[in-house]
Amino acid sequence: MSAQAAAGKRPAMAQDPQRPEARTPRGFVDRRARDVVAERQILTAVSGVYERWGFEPLETGAFEYADALGKFLPDADRPNEGVFALQDDDEQWMALRYDLTAPLARFAAQNWETLPKPFRRYAYGPVWRNEKPGPGRFREFVQCDADTVGSARPEADAEIIAMAVQGLEAAGLPAGSAVIKINNRKLLNGLMAAAGVTDEAQKLGVLRAVDKLDRLGADGVRLLLGEGRLDESGAFTKGAGLSAQSAERVLAFTAAGVGGRAETLAKLAEVVGGSAEGDEGLAELAAIDAALSALGVGPDRALFDPAVVRGLEYYTGAVFEAELLLSTTDEKGQKVTFGSIGGGGRYDDLVARFTGERTPATGFSFGVSRLAAALRAAGRDAARKGPWAVRGPVVVIAFDQARMADYFALAGEIRAAGVPAEVYLGSSGMKAQMKYADRRLSPAAVILGEDEIAAGTVTVKDLDLGRELASKVTDNAEWREQRPGQQTIARAELIPALRRILDAG
Fold it and tell me: Which residues lie within the region annotated Disordered (predicted)?
């Protein structure tokens, strides 16, 4: 064995011009234990809530035929704009699913005769979007959805909202740290009619202006509702072209969401009441309010906000958006704003794309990675104390190749007691093995040398305690002499000792 190999180092290799560069594709990320465990915790907690509400899990394949994706399918020879698509051997285009709703619509249409109606399902899994990546914007991420297909009742919307509130709190958000804001597409349509807006392009301009209310404020939106707005860079955005009177009516609508749900409904009725569609939207919100009150969801957790504009070409009735209220900071301690952490609404036209018959549906979706990042920024990381803490296994130190059977037997004994454990299988010495265990965030290292074997004992080093004390050490010599957290105990006492270390951590 070479000296380099004996030292545990990898020998240098000649540069091969044909060797590919190790790199992650743009828009994709690798996730280690901390992120994986955080997302697993969220999914486990939220799944439990959804199942208690009577929603069944459903898994669909990663690929759908491209024409099933509806509005995400561009008019192009190769449908890969917005989605990742490939052509099957039968020359049909398939695409990685863009979200979890389009597969649900296809599944419901395909199996409608055999499904219980309404059909209540939840699903989670990765989705893929062939879009330009950016900060916090990835091409692959995990979503979690819950939907009811086959009920037109506003109470179905209310149930989804109340369940979403419970799901977010189960995931780690304290009660009152997030609020679900609710609007209705029919109110907005009634507003358009009252404001005399009939042109589709003008409607879109109004909606885009309202969607910028949080960022630009009432004055900025007023400009966008009228002739247009010149921003700080000198760029001009053309407005929706409303009259001053109509623009004020729109702003009065967006400002109606102050106070309780009943108070907001009364204010909205003054603005959009009188139009058939507006009155229908008001009646639906009133039914949602009554159901939420019966479910114990007050305005501190779900309120009416007419300023919510959410993919309105997609939704047909109620729309809702979950907003994080917690104070959040990034890894540098700088304040950050997460804003929306999920949303949904009623979409009654998706299944009809396959069947030709309108099928009512409503649902809520959130990005799992985004929620995990929000929890971390709020200091509620899943990698904390408790059963979901990110921790490595107990490491059994390997002293002697001839004693590997003893080490494996010891690791098996620890695992049989329900404690994760591994034998160090590298080629380094004691110091490096301890460093390895520390990098794994192992709670403890177990030493089984000749003396311990002869005496029927083991030496346990409490690495959790060692890490805590190391942050306070002032005398390295005293540290080495005291060997804090290290004890030699009878073999029969090993498992109780490890459990004490785990419980203390």
Answer: 1-30
Are 297 and 432 found together in one domain? Answer: no
Percent with pLDDT over 90 in the chain: 53
The answer to whether residues 362 and 162 touch, using CB atoms and an 8 Å cutoff, is no
Is 314 flagged in the annotation as binding? yes
Is the model's pLDDT at 134 over the cut of 60?
Answer: yes
147 labelled ligand-binding? yes
3-state secondary structure of 184: strand
Both structure tokens of 187: 């109110």
310 is in an annotated binding site: yes
Question: What pLDDT is attached to residue 479?
Answer: 40
List b or e across 378-398, with b for residues whose CB sees 16 or more CB atoms inside 10 angstroms.
Answer: bebbbbeeeebbbbbbbbbbb
pLDDT (average), residues 93-98: 93
Helices (H) and strands (E) in the chain, counts: 18, 20
Distance, first Cα to last Cα, the chain: 41
Q: Supply the mean pLDDT for the chain.
A: 86
- Specify the pairing of strand 56-57 against strand 119-128: parallel
Q: What letter does residue 262 receive in the DSSP assignment?
A: H
Question: Does residue 309 sit in the same domain as residue 219?
Answer: yes
Q: What is the rounded distance in angstroms from the CA atom of residue 132 to the CA atom of residue 137? A: 8
What is the DSSP secondary structure assignment for residue 402, as one 8-state letter? G
Alpha carbons 423 and 103: distance in angstroms, whole number: 45
Lowest mean pLDDT segment, chosen from 67-76, 265-274, 321-330 = 67-76
SS3 for 495?
A: helix
Residue 404 sits in the same domain as residue 286: no
Question: Closest Cα partner for 419 from 435, 443, 436, 397?
Answer: 443
Rounded Cα distance between 406 and 418, Å, is 19
The two beta strands, 340-346 and 394-396, are unpaired
Whether residue 238 is contained in a domain is answered as yes
Give the structural domain span for 106.
33-377
Reported pTM: 0.82
How many CA atoms, within 13 angstroms, populate the side-chain half-sphere of residue 466?
A: 23
**CB neighbourhood size of 71 (10 A):** 13
Is 487 annotated as contributing to ligand binding? no
Structure tokens at 492: 């029969």
| 475 assigned to a ligand binding site | no
Is 139 in contact with 130 (CB distance < 8 Å)? yes
441 and 412 share a domain?
yes
99 carries a ligand binding annotation = yes
DSSP states along 138-164: -SEEEEEEEEEES---HHHHHHHHHHH
- Is 407 annotated in a binding site? The answer is no
157 is in an annotated binding site: no
315 labelled binding-site residue: yes
